[in-house]
Amino acid sequence: MADLATDAVVDPANWTCPAPLRDQPVVVMGHGGGGALSAELIEQVFAPAYGNPTLAALTDSAVLDLAGTRLAFSTDSYVVRPLFFPGGSLGDLAVNGTVNDLAMSGARPAFLSTAFVLEEGVEISVVGRVAQAIGAAARAAGVTVATGDTKVVEAGHGDGVYVTTAGVGLVPDGVDIRPQRARPGDAVLVSGPIGLHGVAVMSVREGLEFGVEIASDTAPLAGLVAAMLAVTPDLHVLRDPTRGGLGASLNEIARASGTGVRLDERAVPVPDEVRSACGFLGLDPLYVANEGRLVAFVPAEHAEAVLAAMRSHPQGTGAARIGTCVADHPGMVVAATGLGGTRVVDLPLGEQLPRIC
Amino acid sequence: MKYIDEFNDPELARRLLDEIRATATRPWALMEVCGGQTHSIIRHGIDQLLPDEVELIHGPGCPVCVTPLDVIDKALEIAARPEVIFCSFGDMLRVPGTDRDLFRVKGEGGDVRVVYSPLDALDLARRNPDREVVFFAIGFETTAPANAMAVHQARRLGVGNFSLLVSHVRVPPAIEAIMTAPDCRVQGFLAAGHVCSVMGTAEYPDLADRHRVPIVVTGFEPLDILEGIRRAVRQLERGEHLVENAYPRAVREQGNPAALRMLQEVFEVTDRNWRGIGRIPASGWRLSDAYRPYDAEHRFDVTGIRTEEPAVCRAGEVLQGLIKPTECEAFGTACTPRTPLGATMVSSEGACAAYYLYRRMTDGPARQGSRIPQTEVNPVG
């Protein structure tokens, strides 16, 4: 199942709790944070209601067998504020997010739909800028926007512009990429520096200045995935660590496959500006959102070749091996700290909150 | 911006650890005062790397954890009022009060907002003249000057709809209280660098002398903490009890004179209750008489608060360094970040949260340290 809600960055102007009390009877922002609460909502509300084997895989895109053709299918809603930020916009996210969800099953994305929910009073020029961004991002990703829809809600009932995209793509023969396929011994690779998108959005949303402009990493990843598949079709798992960050994605894979992940903390590429901003705010870069990165579980014998292919692709120049899939501590992610200690990297509850001092 | 990596250098860390190992000839118990230090220690696994002779005891320096329950309940009551915009730092909002937290108040319609600075709250007050804006002013000497500045500005600008709910605490009286408790095992302190960057170190020599304990001011990066431990152990082995500054890049003996002036202009020293610990004389700040109109407790009638701590929660003993979080029966079972019984499990600086987040392992738990004798919860001071 694809993402259900918001881009996860703390919003002081409209704060919501990341760790509600368990008997909380209403939806809170943490339910859209990509962490434990999101998983709980899917597992306890949506999956039982829809109940079918396809959905039960709980992957970013469903792989469907349609008259002998394997089709990847995904949908996602985008409600980011502000609509435009360094390195990207709502339109870029709406295309790249769905393209990447398709790519994470190894598919070649082909067609998208876009559905706009507009709030009464929003300037047409703003809608136009979002549409232009969608068109440009679709061309860059090599997908066609084939259908769409528009609704308007009364002023005060929305947040300017919401966009939902759905997409389909073809999965090549012999490709079977799912979180359940992680195996002990797999190399864990990441395609580049983490945390840039989350920090970029936060910097403009809160008016925080970090000395250098931090741009979102939003980008389509289908080309990178194709380059990796050219080395071997036997990629076990791909995941784009969006809401909840790398920490949440690794936990989801560990849980789905019943394996453990041993993370080498020093090998995780964290840009200095992200590290500094997170240090300042009391956030952990492992849980900050990305929009143009993937994490891959690759059989050890292919790891070096796949890594080399990633590094020679424009979207993977900063690729790194960050850990190993292990049989120990099944379902858990454990990091070796830079100093030689160890720590658990847990599934975040919801969103991170800035600390007091 | 390379400074963070420099203070994480594994080779330098190994050298410091070797030196600590070579220096420590018998068991020593050191307390890191600040919750930020605790998290750094647990997150980086520093306690796992230390020789058995050196035990770290986690101190009471988590501002969220020590804010008394009655103040939290007052915050909840004020925040629920329709005329109020209630502002706070992020990690205060999920701390459980007697029967709810600020998050619940928001869910029930209260206007509760996270701000990064008290000046943001003041700005909200200026932009919403028909509302009452209340800022939850908690924390140690680190956050107090900025909060003092906000209320000072409010008076200067004639902003009448702004007030502070104050629960500021001071570190030196807490050290005094810990050292005078009958079951105290602490032999040396790692003092919190950010507190000293404001207050300087003038209050510490007398404490070190009277209790014959080394006090080493440290920062929060792994090498800062290891260097602090190295110096404290060296002093203990030599029989010394000096105040040392191992954080000179941020701390000067005289502190920050401008911040100190602001504190003294707006606040005055008062006795304070510490959650889980008890009343400590002269351990807090309150608004001085001139600023009393900006005191939310004065402005809103919040008397008649009745509080009740969960009986099973042993956060008070954790805060006093009497037990490790994992020794609490509720740890990781009845009490988790999802179902917190005490503030130490929800605060980003809480010791219980640190152990839960970083040490809840199945493949080799952390060295638990020597068992600390159990005692009754003993309000210090």
UniProtKB/TrEMBL annotation, chain A:
Family that this chain belongs to: Belongs to the HypE family.
Pfam family, one: AIRS_C
Protein name: Hydrogenase expression/formation protein HypE
Residues covered by the PurM-like N-terminal domain: 60-171
Domain PurM-like C-terminal: 183-329
Domain of life: Bacteria
InterPro entries assigned to the protein according to its UniProt record, in alphabetical order: HypE, PurM-like_C_dom, PurM-like_C_sf, PurM-like_N, PurM-like_N_sf
Coiled coil start-end: none
UniProt source species: Streptomyces camelliae
NCBIfam families (alphabetical): hypE (TIGR02124)
UniProtKB/TrEMBL annotation, chain B:
A Pfam family reported for this protein in Swiss-Prot or TrEMBL: HypD
Protein origin, superkingdom: Bacteria
UniProtKB keywords: Iron, Metal-binding
Coiled coil: none
InterPro entries (alphabetical): Hyd_form_HypD, HypD_1, HypD_2_sf
NCBIfam families noted in UniProt: hypD (TIGR00075)
Family of the protein in this entry: Belongs to the HypD family.
Protein name: Hydrogenase formation protein HypD
